[in-house]
Design brief:
75 residues, alpha+beta, four-stranded antiparallel beta sheet, 1 helix, 16% helix
């Protein structure tokens, strides 16, 4: 599975960062947990501070777009 980040937007008021990007995969659509672990590894953060908002697959393709939030702490 290949993860590409297209945008990162900091939101200091809510103490989080919005991350958007795309996934290329083979087989079935990746689960939220798989995307969380891959995104945490890419951003070098703990997986417990990553929240997936959406994963939207493209019709008849092995690609998907995602939107997620990373927080600065678990609180």
């Amino acid at each position: 599975m290949k993860l590409t980040i297209t945008s990162k937007v900091e939101n200091p008021l809510l103490d989080r960062r919005k991350v958007e990007g795309s996934l290329e995969f083979s087989g079935s659509t990746p689960t939220n947990n798989e995307v969380v672990s891959l995104l945490a590894k890419e951003l070098k953060v703990d997986p417990s501070v990553v929240a997936i908002k959406t994963i939207a697959t493209h019709f008849s393709e092995r690609r998907a777009s995602f939107s997620a939030y990373t927080y600065h702490s678990t609180e």
